Amino acid sequence: MNYSSRTKMNRGLVYLVLTVLLIICVIPIWILLVNATRSTPEIQQGISLIPSNNLMVNWKNLTNRGFNIWRGFLNSAFISVSVTILTVYFSLMFAYAIHVYDFAYKKFLYGLILVLVMVPTQVSIIGFYKYMSMLNLLNSYVPLIVPAIAAPGSIFFAMQYLESSIVKELIEAARIDGCGELTIFHKIMFPIAKPGAVTMGIFAFVGSWNNFFTPFVLISKMKKYTLPMLVQTLRGDVYRTEYGSIYLGLAVSIIPILIVYILFSRYIVNGIAMGSVKE
Amino acid sequence: MREESRFIDKLKTYIVYAGPTTFVFFTVIILPFLFGIYLTFTSYDGISNSHNLVGFANYIEAFKDTKFLASFLLTLKYVLYTVVFTNVIAFLFAYILTSGMKGQNFFRAGFFTPNLIGGIILGFIWQFIFSKLLVYIGNNFNIPIFSTSWLADPVRAFWTLVIVSVWQNSGYMMVIYIAGFMNVPKDLLEAANIDGANAWRRMVNVIIPMMIPSITICLFLTLQRGFMVYDVNLALTKGGPFKSTELISMYVYNQAFLSQKYGVGQAQAFVLFLVVALVSVIQVYFSKKMEVEA
């Protein structure tokens, strides 16, 4: 076997392995979408990778059982969009400040954030709950949205990202040209950080959209339920036998995320690495 | 005088940039966290309004709890496997998908997809896969290992958790490793090539040292996610069969909220936090030390 046909074979093998792995990654999601179009007996009988024709029946079953899935959809969308905007803006701002200015307690702040990323929700949730009930904020979206201003995970990411992409000379040059500090942040840093910002935004959106635990503890009014909470009630009594409808409910809750991802995936797969003018 | 005005200037910029975040940090993270720690020294049961200080009683009870220690050991095993598998797989994906092959962005996007699905939904789909799809395949193609549901067997149920976690997290770590690979200076690799270094030598002596920052982040994230995992555990195995797969987060949660032993559960959660913080800080410290400049 000569050299070039061997590399061709190797390459073929690599593609084969990658394709198999790709199928493993996507097939559970595909099964979910397919099951949303199948009837309950069909699902219980076995597996199919081809959509069936029971979608409308499932939809009727899903929407006729006393709760409004559109309402949950809007609730989730409102929370997730607000969280995304606040997280991206304030995390970048905080990370930028830590990078560009020399604070006396810079290292301490960095360490503090590193530790805060590790605080399990379980440790602080009761304290948070008591505190919110004191402020009369139970069943309100404020405790779900405002904490997004301080998201240690995003700040950690933003600091890592800015470390590789921020050029101090650029900022100094802007200062000498008479730019105000906030103008520098908005006009110079933001465009440079855009790929990182989009990536952070997607993570924030997905995280908030999928968040089950916090709303579950804080929200008790059905009208204010988020989508994952409704999905969880789907698994309760009324739907126990309606597998098709349950899968449709699950499908409805992941489709927005798939759309956001398809629109922005190029930022994720390239984004983190793309810096600014740095060579 | 000048020193003073400089200090005020700095304070002003700090308040403008970091003020809102610092304020929210203190009110929504640090205060409830400290309050939680305070509660570990009380007889609080989660419901009543009054409670007494009990000193270290909760901690003593926490360490006397053999189920807690068993769950902790299981979690350590789980963390070890998920951290190793996730990082090795993600690193290999990233290596192959930065080699300039055709369609690499398509593959990257595909491998990342599992990360988009939330824990509750994830558990539901994988339950279907382990108890229906694999059993179906096992019975029809005569593969004995799949012919009964993995979720019904304590040992295999543990592995379902590892498999699903690795499946979910590899894509995320891959993206971070890809960024790392793209930051390895090309001229260094060329120089190594000219010096006659083969692929393996280039990997060990050039690429890996340049990738330490990415490895630091990925180890940190996988460690932290591993210790904290809750929703996959809840939705996939619910801790079963026979409570054999109750990882530490779930154990602590059940202890506090279901058994009403709030003080003990909270004390155990705090011990968990200390262990995670210690492990992570040590890991980050040593990885930072290994970093090199190009």
Automatic annotation (TrEMBL), chain A:
Every ABC transmembrane type-1 domain range: 73-264
Principal subcellular localization: membrane
Compartments reported by the entry: Cell membrane
Topology relative to the membrane: Multi-pass membrane protein
GO biological process: transmembrane transport
KW Cell membrane (keyword) present: yes
Spans through the membrane: 12-33, 73-96, 108-129, 141-162, 197-219, 244-264
Signal peptide stretch: none
PROSITE patterns per UniProt: ABC_TM1
Keyword vocabulary terms for this entry: Cell membrane, Membrane, Sugar transport, Transmembrane, Transmembrane helix, Transport
GO annotation, cellular component aspect: plasma membrane
A Pfam family it matches: BPD_transp_1
Family statement: Belongs to the binding-protein-dependent transport system permease family.
Designated name of the protein: Multiple sugar transport system permease protein
Organism lineage string: Bacteria, Bacillati, Bacillota, Clostridia, Eubacteriales
UniProtKB/TrEMBL annotation, chain B:
Cited InterPro entries: ABC_transporter_permease, MetI-like, MetI-like_sf
Parts of the chain that traverse the membrane: 21-41, 78-97, 109-137, 157-182, 203-223, 267-286
Subcellular localization: Cell membrane
Major site of localization recorded for this protein: membrane
GO cellular component: plasma membrane
One GO-annotated biological process of the protein: transmembrane transport
Protein family per UniProt: Belongs to the binding-protein-dependent transport system permease family.
Membrane protein topology class: Multi-pass membrane protein
Protein name: Carbohydrate ABC transporter membrane protein 1, CUT1 family
Location of the ABC transmembrane type-1 domain: 72-283
Sorted UniProt keywords: Cell membrane, Membrane, Transmembrane, Transmembrane helix, Transport
Biological source species: Caloramator quimbayensis
